[in-house]
Structures are given as C-alpha cells and as structure tokens.
Design brief:
Blueprint lengths: L1 H11 L1 H11 E3 L21 H10 L8 H15 L10 H9 L6 H14 L4 E8 L9 E8 L4 E5 L5 E5 L8 H9 L4 E5 L8 H8 L4 E7 L3 H11 L5 H10 L5 E4 L10
Parallel strand pairs: 1-8
Antiparallel strand pairs: 2-3, 2-7, 3-4, 5-6, 7-8
Helix pairs in contact: 4-6
C-alpha cells in the first residue's frame, strides 16, 4: 500500500503538476509561435518503424492528396482502433503497441502518436495542452493537436480523440487554436463537429475541455521523440517518470510550454 501511494504521488499529485509548469513555462506571443512545429525536432528517420508499418495499413486502400484529408483519415482510423485507458508515459513505439492492443492511452498519448504519424506523412503538426487560471486540480487539463493546412495556409485545431474540428459562425474553414480562444474570450459563437460517423460526439466533454473562458492554451515545444524514447526506455522501469523529466530538464534537453495568449504566472495567482 505504501509503494502504491508513493507511485501515485510521483504520477498524479498536483504539487508535481504545478512544479512542472513553473519549470517549463515561458510567455510568448501569437507571432512567436507561428512557425513552431513538432517536425522541427523530429525528422522522419527518428520515428520508430512500427509507426511506418501501421501507417501503411491506414493508407492501404487509398491516400488523399491534401494534408487536411490525410489527417482526417488518420484521425478516424486511430479513434476507431484505440479504445483508450490509463496514461502510459512509455517510449512511443511501446505506447503505440499498448494502445492498439486496447490496454491504455489518454488524450496526451493520442496527441503524441498522432504527431509521429504526421511526420511520416510530411504534414506539419504540433501539440497543445490546456490548463485553467487560477489552477484547478479538478480540471486536469487536456491535450490535442494542430496541423498546418497548405490548402488554407493556416493552422487548424484537430482533436484526435474525438475527430473534432471547431468553426466560427462566419466561415466554413476550421479554426486554429488561437482563433478559437480569441473568439471564446469575447463571447463570440463557435461550434464544433466530428468527421467520424462511427463514434458519437460527447458534447459535455467538449464543452468542459475547450469552452470554459478560464481555459488557457499552451504550445508544447522542443519535444524530441528520439530523446524521450531513449531515456524512457533506459530508466522507465526503475525510476518515476517525473525524475526522468527532471533529468532531461537539468540537461537542457526537455520540452517546454509557450503561452501565446496569457501570462502563465496568472495560473498560480
């Protein structure tokens, strides 16, 4: 029982959640994050082979010619073939294997594996998270992606866990993360819809994860999949994940959070 409590503390306690934010957070701007992408730190050659094998299955019958249609096909396939479960904190190749076996995976795991599939398919992608200000331990946060659409020349928010897009009332072009939260904060109407006919959308979850005015988005930058896979593979069986992340922070190999719309310090006020 004692070991279980210690394990829970290192995985879930909100003290560590806040500590991580204090260490990793940086204020930014909309223009400051405009060109940031996961692809910058992750060339195709660094993506594990099992992603390439699964990618061949996903696009076995047909592969769309546009970025937007490719990510929609990826999203639907992943949502239909991964039922989810506990958070993993595993190397990405093992995480994909566990998730496809139906034994785990939360929103951050889904966002991470989607990043790798986008890299394989030459689609610019990045990962966002959300928190609340002031900090709300009941909320817990949410993770999702944004892809760059060449046909619209803009970033588009996409939630892989729900095959979800957001729109304003004045355009049929999907919103970016920044556009969504700019509209929410001035009480402009937004709506959402799924492009997966197989899985019904849970409107209450979408409203909770996105549409609260106290929600603060942050961009996850400088995440090297190869680096984290290496350290998790070596140390994950022996030390808590929090310690692995701290070691990478101390070595200046860690990811960090960029806040383009808010002063991150207001989270702790």
């Amino acid at each position: 029982m004692f070991l279980k409590k210690v394990s829970w503390f290192f995985r879930r306690h909100h003290f560590l959640y806040i500590t991580r934010f204090r260490l990793l957070s940086r204020n930014s701007s909309i223009t400051g994050v405009a060109s940031c992408s996961y692809n910058e730190c992750n060339p195709k050659k660094d993506i594990p082979d099992n992603f390439k094998e699964v990618n061949a299955i996903i696009f076995k019958e047909t592969k769309p010619t546009t970025d937007f249609e490719q990510v929609k096909q990826l999203s639907v396939w992943l949502q239909n073939n991964i039922k989810g479960g506990p958070g993993l904190s595993e190397p990405s190749d093992r995480a994909l294997h566990i998730m496809l076996a139906g034994k785990g995976g939360v929103c951050s795991d889904m966002a991470q594996i989607f990043n790798n599939f986008c890299v394989i398919n030459s689609v610019r992608v990045r990962e966002w998270g959300t928190t609340r200000a002031p900090f709300n331990k009941e909320f817990g946060g949410h993770s999702f992606n944004e892809v760059f659409s060449k046909e619209w020349n803009k970033w588009i928010l996409i939630d892989i866990s729900s095959s979800l897009l957001f729109y304003s009332d004045t355009s049929d072009v999907p919103l970016s993360v920044v556009e969504l939260y700019q509209l929410i904060r001035v009480n402009k109407a937004v709506h959402f819809k799924t492009f997966n006919d197989v899985k019904p959308i849970k409107a209450a979850n979408i409203k909770r994860n996105y549409l609260d005015r106290n929600t603060i988005p942050f961009l996850i930058c400088n995440y090297s999949n190869r680096t984290y896979d290496l350290y998790l593979s070596i140390f994950r069986p022996y030390v808590p994940v929090f310690i692995i992340h701290f070691v990478l922070y101390a070595l200046r190999k860690s990811y960090y959070y960029r806040f383009p719309l808010d002063n991150y310090k207001k989270i702790y006020d």
